[in-house]
Protein 1
Amino acid sequence: MKANPNITGLQKDVNIMEIPWMMMTNADVSDELVYKITKAIVEHNDKLGASFGAFKNAKSAAMAPANAMPYHPGALQYYKEAGIKVGN
């Protein structure tokens, strides 16, 4: 990234590594709550991006990559409805 005096830590050009993130919960959290959270992240990504710039890079189509940890049924329900491929 090019230096940007308006961003803390970018007073000179730097190499940045981007690592995908995953939200985790346990099986006891209701399907409805996980569905709503997943839907809110996808459908309001613009607002998340306004509050934290890294969200602007999020792509809903890449939201459910292959993973050893199983996806919560509530998230799977939203992905199916939204046409987001799981395990891509």
Protein 2
Amino acid sequence: MVRRSATQLLRGDSLDTIVPRGGGFLGGIFESSAALSVRTFAQNCDAQVYHLRTEGGRHEVDFIVEGDQGVLAIEVKLSSTVDDSDVKHLLWLREQIGDACVGLVVAHTGPEAYRRPDGIAVIPLALLGP
């Protein structure tokens, strides 16, 4: 049996066989928690939830929620701050689908919700709700 410290587990050290994804273990847990919330709220609204990744991973959006009103795109970040690099795929998606895009959101670990000058809502995951 191999023992790991809490820090090693959170970073995802040597967990490639257990957690088949890049990034740390805590990031996977955070994104899974977001997925549970988003899917639950979407189901209540008769909306569908998808993940978008273009060929080669050039563009990726964590959650695409599609309902009668249009498309809501959500990016999840295990960070208390959000910068331009965190929203580039959301902005790309808005350019691609135009008026079908009813909102862009970054769910994060920070304490405040606000709207960026580009219109993207930045919301702590704890405040995300219907």
Protein 3
Amino acid sequence: MLIYNASTKRGIFFKETMKTYIAKEKDIKRIWYVVDAKDKILGRLAAKVASVLRGKDKVIYSPHQDTGDEVIVINASLIKTTGKKMQQKTYKRYSAYPGGLNIETLERVMAKSPERVIRHAVKGMLPKNKLGAKLLKKLRVYPSEAHPHIAQKPQVLTVK
């Protein structure tokens, strides 16, 4: 920016600095969303849920802050996958004992605890730090339509 001084007949340049908006805790409005996972593709569902948890759809989004909303996923046992992922995709767990590696297919994990599959997919799309752990606590996954969060009046979130 150029400011002209009439008495000295000189122009003085001042550098303007841009202001970065940082959301205050009081400015963040948390909304509860409910997502029906029935017949939805696992990866697309997880990507949308992770985006809402981070708050990327909000104007006040900051990558280092928790500006996201709470998400409830229902009907987790009715998700779909493409190709042969049900038989070929594997999940590994290690018990920290010798020979304690547990490898299970997606089909077997879905039979035991389908909410673990969605939580694992969303966790992979969140930051790998303390912020990611905090965001994951705002995700609630239920295998059927019943959930105990009616009092929060969740809005329906549509996923393609």
